[in-house]
Amino acid sequence: MAARPDVVVLGAGVSGLSTGIRLVESGARVLVRTAAPPAHTTSALAGAMVGPNLSPPGDPQRAWTDETLRVLGAEPLPGVAWRDGTLAARPEGATPSFADQTPGFRSLGDDERPAGFGTAFTVRLPLVDMPVYLAYLLERFRDAGGEVRVAPVASLDEAATSAPVVVNCAGLAARTLTGDTGLHPVRGPRIVVRNPGLDRFFMEAPMAPTWASIFPHGDHVVLGGGQRRSDDTTPDPAEEADVLARCVAIEPALAAAEILEHRVGLRPGRAAPRVEAERRGDALVVHNYGHAGNGVMLSWGCAREAAALALGGTPPA
Ligand SMILES: Cc1cc2nc3c(=O)[nH]c(=O)nc-3n(C[C@H](O)[C@H](O)[C@H](O)COP(=O)(O)OP(=O)(O)OC[C@H]3O[C@@H](n4cnc5c(N)ncnc54)[C@H](O)[C@@H]3O)c2cc1C
């Protein structure tokens, strides 16, 4: 980039790239500085299911999710496939009252629910094959004139020497950059197996530390899940066996599936995402981090809001 950027975005995960695209496609000169390329971010480890957002009406996360669903539904995008699948919970009567607004909603009867589940319904949602989707976002950002440098910043003040506006999409690393003690790592396994022929997804409501999630993406299936407050990213064979057992209980065809990958990601846990602006000296800093287990689902909505804050130039009252 020959001229000084208007905006420097920290992070090349789904938050940083989506926000960078919104900014660069609005005409801004945008530099993304990242500690790692997109394929080595937490975002690359997500399953990833988009929606439904079952937070209460009026919660901003509902509108952010709706924006992501709108973008992913507007045109075919690499890595994104709309699929039918089942959402289930162990207790009876756990269907949120507004779940029936989700496309394809149908409540499953007693004889259709998997054993051990008191609540289950089908919906139609986007599944995102994250390595493919992140490569698309990166290409779209660059094609629009954006630049990406693998050059982490040591502080927000250092970032502000690159551009008058800084957008902080550093995920869990925002903890160090901002001192936000509300941000914490939530460990989750990603186990990829060869697809034995599944095309429907399954997701158990994450009401406990472990659950079953089965996300087919063509030739492979991403299995999860688990949530544990830990910053240990070492794959654990016992955890792998546990995930497989829970998923096989839902889809017996997975029992013989070849395991292709086992990695562990750290979700940027926070009570709610932080999307807001603040002044730091002469610089405007816009934060867009802390999306916990929903960063892909919230990505386009948060990107739009963060870009508006960055382009408006003044923090909201
Ligand atoms: C196993 C698993 C399954 C998941 N499944 C889903 C799902 O189904 N649906 C869903 O919506 N979400 C899911 N998530 C959550 C989702 O992955 C995260 O919420 C999302 O990836 C957060 O994206 P991000 O861009 O904010 O952060 P990240 O992807 O962590 O990106 C942070 C970026 O900041 C960069 N960075 C770090 N330090 C610095 C620095 N000092 N200077 C500059 N850059 C820096 C990093 O290199 C990286 O590029 C899942 C997560 C896991 C682990």
Automatic annotation (TrEMBL):
<keyword id="KW-0285">Flavoprotein</keyword>
<comment type="similarity">
    <text>Belongs to the DAMOX/DASOX family.</text>
</comment>
<dbReference type="InterPro" id="IPR006181">
    <property type="entry name" value="D-amino_acid_oxidase_CS"/>
</dbReference>
<dbReference type="Pfam" id="PF01266">
    <property type="entry name" value="DAO"/>
</dbReference>
<dbReference type="InterPro" id="IPR006076">
    <property type="entry name" value="FAD-dep_OxRdtase"/>
</dbReference>
<feature type="domain" description="FAD dependent oxidoreductase">
    <location>
        <begin position="6"/>
        <end position="309"/>
    </location>
</feature>
<keyword id="KW-0274">FAD</keyword>
<keyword id="KW-0560">Oxidoreductase</keyword>
<dbReference type="InterPro" id="IPR023209">
    <property type="entry name" value="DAO"/>
</dbReference>
<protein>
    <recommendedName>
        <fullName>D-amino-acid oxidase</fullName>
        <ecNumber>1.4.3.3</ecNumber>
    </recommendedName>
</protein>
